[in-house]
Amino acid sequence: MKRLILTTIPALSLAATATGVGVGAQSAAAAPPPLEYVTLGDSYSAGNGTGTYDETICWRSPDNYGAQVAQAVGAQHTTAACAGGVVADILNPRKLGAPTTKTATYRLPGTSPNSEKHWLRLAKDDALCGVPAQPDWYYDYTLRSSNRDGEDVTATVSCQLTATPQIDAVTQKTDAVFLTVGGNDIGFGLITAHCLLARNATNCSVALGAAEAKLPRLQEDISAALKAVHDRSKGNAEIYLLGYPHLINMASYTIPEGAPTYDAGAALYRLQLDGDRAQAQAMAELDATTTGKGGFTFVDVKPAWGGLTHGLDPHAVPNQANSWLVPIGAPGRQPSEWVHPTIQGWNADADALRAALK
């Protein structure tokens, strides 16, 4: 389970000195290659909430916790995480947004029955759908209609922006993989909408109950996906699954506030701890049963966040002065940033990961 390799350079021999080999030349030859880190997963790994983004489809940020940890040790870093990510995206392509359409005319001599395939090839060569902003994105071209007028073929194509499976970012040279995943699989968006935004007791209870029921299946799915990541690295990569911080700053909070009927805070608190236990158990079982240099570690980020201290104040009239999560409706922030770590939260995640690195 290697991390950093420290080497001691022996004193120069007389022979080396005589041949003119200097310290700089030997040091350069002996320098190990940089470590290679990869970040997979969802918005809590991509960067939502940092305020600095490379793009706003996956919301990848140069300040996410993986990038921070890599920078601290001089490692190369790749972010394949994407907002809205689920466990299935680790192993499968994912459509990003709705498709668009493009129409073009190409001159195709002759009467070949493969003119539509020829037209599609030319459209792809011309990047008719556009050039994706990230190296792991591509456009899936689907021909919708075509019309031939002599040698001119006019056709319309559907352009679906697609992300490759996140696992494609992992290679045999990958030293460590970091990720958060599972929140969207059990309904993070519905919990936020019903329990923190609308504060509807019935809908909140249903959302939290459904999430609890999905935890056993989530544990199985995470185990399978991370075993595949381990295998993709040929057993070399250490895999670190980070948990999520507490979403609110109290372990008990009843809704609706005017006539409280349901302790949403207690149910949410229990769900988050149950989720941590399920993920930690998955990692422990993988670590005990999988061969190779790389192991599996669950990283509980809650202590680095001060437990409940920096969650959101869930009250209708809140005090968010101590929150390290972007409040719902925060001025100047997009909905995709709400209920995601501020830079202070991302720093805390980075601190927790650094402490766990082997």
Specify Rg, calculated over alpha carbons. 25 Å
Q: Which consecutive residue ranges, at least 5 long each, have pLDDT under 50?
A: 1-26
* Helix content estimate: 25-40%
Number of strands: 11
Characterize the structure shown.
The protein has 358 residues and is of the alpha/beta class. Helices cover 34% and strands 18% of the residues. The protein has ten helices and eleven strands. The strands form three sheets. The chain has a five-stranded parallel β-sheet with strand order 2-1-7-8-11, sandwiched between helices. Strands 3, 4, 5 and 6 form a four-stranded antiparallel β-sheet that branches. A hairpin with a 6-residue loop joins β9 (254-255) and β10 (262-263). The radius of gyration is 25 Å and the shape is globular.
Can you describe this structure in just a few lines?
By secondary structure, the protein is α/β, with parallel strands linked by helices. The chain has ten helices and eleven strands.
List the helices and strands and how they pair.
Elements: H1 14-18, H2 23-30, E1 36-41, H3 43-46, H4 65-73, E2 76-79, H5 88-91, E3 94-95, E4 100-107, H6 115-125, E5 137-149, E6 152-163, E7 176-180, H7 188-197, H8 201-232, E8 238-242, E9 254-255, E10 262-263, H9 264-289, E11 296-299, H10 343-356
Parallel strand pairs: 1-2, 1-7, 7-8, 8-11
Antiparallel strand pairs: 3-6, 4-6, 5-6, 9-10
Helix pairs in contact: 4-10, 7-8, 8-9
